[in-house]
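Weekly structure sync, notes
Attendees: PL (lead), two postdocs, one rotation student
Agenda item 3: pending single-chain targets
PL asked that the sequence for the first pending target be pasted directly into the notes so everyone works from the same version. It is reproduced below exactly as submitted, 302 residues in total.
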Amino acid sequence: MSTGVPAAIVGGYLGAGKTTLVNHLLRHAGGRRIAVLVNDFGELGIDADLIEGADGEVLSLAGGCVCCSFGSDLVGTLRSVMARDPAPEALLIETSGVGLPAAVARTVRLVPGLELTGILTVADATALQAQCADRYVADTVRQQLADADLLVLNKTDAVDAQALPGLRDWLESGWPGLRRVETAWGAVMPEVVFGLSGRTGAAHEDGSDIAAWARPALTPPAAALGFESGVLRPPSAVDLNAFVKELTSPASRLVRAKGFVTDAQGVRHLVQVVGRRAQVTPLSAAASGPVEDVIVWIRTAA
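Predicted structure, written out during the meeting:
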């Protein structure tokens, strides 16, 4: 069954490292045609060697990727991008440094053919606590954190190792259950941002889509970036609520999971997890899926 083109929203305050993260994703696109949407080209510094040409409000990037400026008409730009030939395989929407990602998420849900895979808020580990105490910017930064499905805590390499546990405890006390990945230089796996498939489209009875999910997740760079990945084969007739609660528990350390399970009533479900958010979709009897119930996952390394 098709779940649409994955669209991820990247938010975060000025200087958090959103630009660095976007450039990292473009350099590690893995053959995906990624469309990057920004308010204004001047707000996003795409690395010069990635730009192959410009045409009005569109930059042509390496590997079939594009960057589009949407100004005040995000819906119109999304529809225009989706109508491109060939169409993008993934969308990355970067909000303004003072923007609220949840507002953009509501707009994305209005566009047919898109699947919102999650809101990632990028935060500067060296400045976050001070920003959240600042009388002028605290409300914005705190709301960006509240909007997040997954927190990308960036610039952790610039934080004293002895101070990191205190920062983690502070985050957990203020935003309990908010899953995070800790990064330097925005080095986040594309599978964490867009989900566990290198392509869009149907899952087939022969299980071929399962292989497509697992292949990128199990590559050596995952371990190098501080992630672990694998495959879980749940038993049949699971207690669906308890199972999803386990997947979204902080103890699981999951940042992404996707797959199929069958509940106690014999109904199959597509389960998708990003950070602390889970989406469970019952499948019709005619919907295709792999023969075996299976969940593919990525989590932060212990």
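Discussion points:
- The CA atoms of residues 20 and 289 lie 37 Å apart.
- The chain has ten helices and 14 strands.
Action: rotation student to compare against the earlier draft before next sync.
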